[in-house]
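User: Hey, quick favor. My workstation is busy. Could you predict this chain's structure for me?
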Amino acid sequence: MFSEPNQEVEAAVIVGIDFGTTYSGYAFMFTSDPTSIYTAMGEEREPTCVLLNPDKTFNAFGKKALINYAELEPEEHQSHYFFNHFKKKLYESKKLTRETSLQDHTGKEMKAMDVYSIVFEYFHRRAMEHVGQVKCYQTSQGFSSKHILWMLSIPAIWTDSARQFMRETATNAGMKNVRLVLEPEAGALYAIDKPLNVREDMSNERFAVGHKYILADLGGGTIDICSHEILDSRKLCELYRATGDYAGGSRVNHEFEKFLVRLFGAPALDEFRTKFTHSYQDFIQTVETKKCMFSCSTDKTTLPLDYDFVTLVEKDNEEAIDEMVKGSRYKDLVQYKITGRRLILNHSVVKEFFDSSVDIIIEKLKEILSACPQDNITSLLLVGGYSESPYVRERIQQNFPQLTTVIVENGRLAVMKGAVMMGLKPRNVIQRRARFTYGFSTYALFVEGKHPEQFKKNFDGRTWCKGVFDKLIERGELLQHQQEFSKKFYKCIQTKSKQLESHLSLWGSPKPNPRYCYLEDDQCERVGVINVPSPPGGWPDEINHTGKLVVGETEFTMKLFIEETGQEYEANVDFL
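Assistant: No problem, here it is.
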């Protein structure tokens, strides 16, 4: 809900950044040539990890960060800062602030905003260098960040505070012109703008106007799912509010590590991770490879164990690994072969690693279909790195045989390239559904037997009920860009308050019809406040004012008009 810029930027270059939980990357295009999208040099996407020096300055990002960290001596791990998979902190944090901290690989803390700003500075610098190389521009010849429109993709399920966090950290990193784009929407725009390979007939046609589909962006951290109808001029109308969860591919890795802990205990794995970093990284890469190969027909999965890990396990337990496996609950499902130090897992064991996330994906898809029974949704588009898993695809197709599963070419790059393409689109390209119910907190004359006694308040000879939720937008309601929702209010000013600032509070709730802002069952949260200073001479006894909520591309703006003074104020909404 942090106010987004109202002025459209005429940019020479559009850069899209897909800052993922597991992998990140960027792509760009010159607005003079919208047919060509350039991706990052070398690896199109890199692991989302950053290594900082002991003085908290940048050392390396991505694969180079992994290599540099692995080559450090163990005691140097305590002085350097290594952050991996840190994006999920923005999803998991119940109360995100500018002071929220991250823990690095060894438990050292650093402000999250500082870490993110350093990473965005890296992307800013690298993208600028790449653009300059392609266009033969040099910054000394007048090319700078102000010529770039930065499109940052974010999960649709993120809170308003997380969205503001991303915008602020990008701005702190020198990105002047920033637009936020929802990840599944970027993936959808990329997909419907190009010919699609459909599973049944392998046709290469674009979806026609009127077609309705679901797009599932299955990433490493989050899954984001949206459903659209294609309108004239290739605009989109959301059929059901975007939904999702923390149920991406990294959850499989997490389940696998939990399995190792159940078999061999946590100390050996922790020591292996910290003391033999390079070997641990190779081991995780092996897990990634096996994950990409697993399918419903895979009978057994073989994982070679590193010599150092085996040594640590047997040292901690004073028992051979094969004996530990035989004495575990997996004795009939897992085998250990001393030759080659191979762990052989039965299909049902690996299936459990996947199902904790795949079951959530299937549940979310069913939620959309059951909420849109009359919409005749016929297609399911899969994008994101996790969608390339054969097992994930097979499970989805088994559960939704009525849908045509569309395999999007270069699906792992769909969000990154779609973010670039969205930079050419007007802000009103998508009509969205509200994720929450929004309303103002107001006073109403107290009615005995109707209003809660705990909200009763007496002043100026009358009895009022405070914190009544006056609804503006209902969860799931279709919203248009720049659409305004307004309410008129009458306010009686107490004598002692005439010189004080007046305020109007905006509240949100996941419930469709909350009644009171302060009632726990209504799950309301204050999401914005407009504070208005008193005019010279103080407020009159009564105030008539109008509160407005203006729909932005991914955020809102609040306004307040005071009839007595003729002035309009815009909210300084701050979620952090």
